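quick q for whoever's on today - can somebody do inverse folding on this one?? i tried earlier but teh output was garbage lol. tokens:
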């Protein structure tokens, strides 16, 4: 009997439109979806604000990135509803003895796996060669589900704001 491929983590979002609003929250270490499931399901099932009930779906990417997508907020944005959900996610992480990375952290794919860098570290890590133009970075600022489906989660450092700010063109000989 042939081995089947495991389902794509994006399968959780199969019924949502590309325009669905997306949040990517990175944990400080790998986490099993089964550990998160009861807490995340409970939080998202009660996500409401001013009479609007939200219908979010979630999955784990890269073993440590919680991806939450919700279609209503793409057309009817509510900062208060979003703040409430994010506050709930931070509380959930605390109850499970997990930490969410600072949203300003840069998540790089290095030979030993994913590594988070504070923005203050970037220049030093570029100077010592830990990070270079080809280093894959994960973009936790994707705005909608279509961006994730189109493979925009991971890009080479040179193609990001970091590359534009820190990498200098090498003069030709």
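ok took a stab at it. sequence:
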């Amino acid at each position: 009997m042939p081995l089947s491929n495991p389902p794509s983590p994006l399968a959780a979002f199969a019924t949502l439109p590309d325009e669905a609003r997306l949040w990517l929250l990175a944990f400080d270490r790998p986490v099993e979806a089964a550990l998160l499931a009861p807490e995340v399901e409970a939080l998202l099932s009660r996500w409401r604000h001013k009479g609007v009930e939200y219908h979010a779906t979630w999955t784990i990417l890269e073993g440590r990135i919680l991806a939450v997508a919700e279609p209503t907020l793409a057309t009817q944005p509510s900062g208060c509803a979003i703040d409430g959900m994010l506050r709930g996610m931070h509380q959930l992480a605390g109850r499970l003895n997990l930490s969410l990375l600072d949203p300003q952290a840069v998540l790089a794919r290095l030979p030993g796996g994913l590594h988070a860098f504070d923005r203050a570290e970037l220049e030093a890590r570029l100077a010592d060669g830990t990070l270079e133009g080809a280093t894959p970075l994960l973009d936790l600022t994707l705005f909608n589900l279509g961006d994730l489906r189109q493979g925009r989660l991971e890009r080479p450092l040179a193609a990001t704001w970091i590359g534009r700010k820190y990498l200098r063109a090498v003069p030709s000989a």
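fwiw The longest helix spans residues 79-95. also The longest strand covers residues 21-26. so keep that in mind when u check it
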